[in-house]
Each structure stands twice: as structure tokens, then as C-alpha cells.
Amino acid sequence: MARRPKRAEHDNHERWMVSYADFITLLFAFFVVMYGISSVNEGKYKVFSVSVNQAFGANGKAGEGNAIHLSEQEMYFKSLVDRRNARLAEIQRKQNESMQNLAKDLNASMASFVKNGQMNVSQTGRGVELEINASALFKQGEADIEPEALKTLADAAKVLAGNDFAIEVEGHTDNLPISTPKFPSNWELSSARASSVVRLFIDQGITAKRLKAVGSADNQPVDSNDTPEGRARNRRVTITVLNPVAEPEPTVLSAPEQQ
Question: Where is the composition biased (Polar residues) (predicted)?
């Protein structure tokens, strides 16, 4: 049989294109890195320098360079943290000062309630809290604010309208059950009382989005429900002006008196 002739092998003259493509890719990456370096500030350059040294440094001298740059990096970030903490401290100081002034103004505007022992103003970790005895605002088993209390609450609302702090109004009852067509349980009664105060505040110009009405029924007593005096104190409405910056310790500005 006749042998098949061998195919003539030709040199591949286009192999240089593979190396050329690799070179172009590396060159492109190099210019991207150079552009990135030119558009960052000194602090970011230090971070980049540390990263490059950590990625490519292998000998002892490179390690020493990394340590120097890492120290500079730590100093840079420490300065950022210090400036941030200073800003937060100043914000907290101003917020606390605003809360203290607000507590004094509310104490003055509701002096009649405070004098009669029907309300106390305190500054807690959440903000400024007004605790008002329910007997000063409502008839027993009702949620309509008494006419005598409307003016005092309106005066408080004028003080509260002068700031942008969120306000939470919470109704509380004693543990004696209630069952009427209007209020099947203490949940409905406490919620309705909180809502009555919120509606009054809105009518006095406080923005509705700042307000929240909460009904807690008899689940958060401040005194024993075993005595009439304790139950009277548990029937209350608390108005809390929420502080965006929390306080660690409460400071009582006026103490409540037993009814």
C-alpha cells in the first residue's frame, strides 16, 4: 500500500498575539491602578500602600515597611474615630441641654398638676417623661378629657410644639376589670385615653407624625394594686418626649405625691 504523504507543518506566526494580548492587559491594569492612586487622598493612599506591601512583600525589610505604614494607617483611622466621637459628644451635649430646658418648661406650664401631686416630670434614659394621674384628666371609666384639664394640656402642647422630638403617649389602668359597651376591657380604655391626649396635641399644632398612642392596660403598674391608693396611682397617662441620644441615668425633677 502506498503511504499517505505527511502534511506539511507550517510555523504559527500569530503566537506573538497571545503574549501581546497579555502585555496589553497588564498595561491596562497598571494604568487603572495609577489612575486610582491619583484620585484618592493621602489617607486612602496609605491604606492602598499597606495592602500592596502585604500582598507583595516577602522579606524582612518589606515587613518592616508594612509595620511603618500600618502604624500610619492606625493613626489615620484613630483621628477619624476621635473626630467622630467629638461630634457625637457635642450632639449629645446639645440634646441633653435641650431636654433639660424642655423639662423645666413643662414643669412650669403644668405647675397646677405638679402642685396638686397629680403629675411629675422626670428626665429618664428615654427622654423627658410626664406622668399624669388619670383622675386629673378623666372621669372614672371614661376617656374624654375633662374641661378643667384641657387648658393645662394645651399649655403643655404649646411647649412641645416648639421642638421636633418624637412623643409617645401611653395609657395605663389598674387591674380592676371593666366591661362596658364602649370599653370591653382595660386595653380599650387605656388606648382610648392615650388617643384622646394625642388628638388634643394634634389640635394644638403638634405634627401628627411625631406622635404615638399606646395602650398598656394594667401591665405596667408603678404601685401595688392591693390598695385603693396604689390602684389610683397606677391609673395614669405618661407622655414621653423621646431623646434621640439615650441618657444612662434618670434624674427626677419633681417627685410624685400619693393621692
Answer: 217-227
Q: What are phi and psi of 178, to 5 degrees?
A: -130, 140
Q: Look at residue 119 in the predicted model and tell me its pLDDT.
A: 86
Cα–Cα distances (Å) from 46 to 62, 63, 65, 113, 249, in that order, read 15, 15, 12, 62, 42
Higher pLDDT: 20 or 36? It is 20
254, three cell numbers:
419633681
Question: Which domains occur in the chain, in start order?
Answer: 16-82 (no CATH), 92-252 (3.30.1330.60)
In sequence order, what are the residues at sequence separation of 6 or more whose Cβ sits closer than 8 angstroms to the Cβ of residue 160?
102, 106, 167, 201, 206, 241
User: pLDDT tens digit string along 113-142?
Assistant: 877 788 888 888 888 899 999 999 999 999
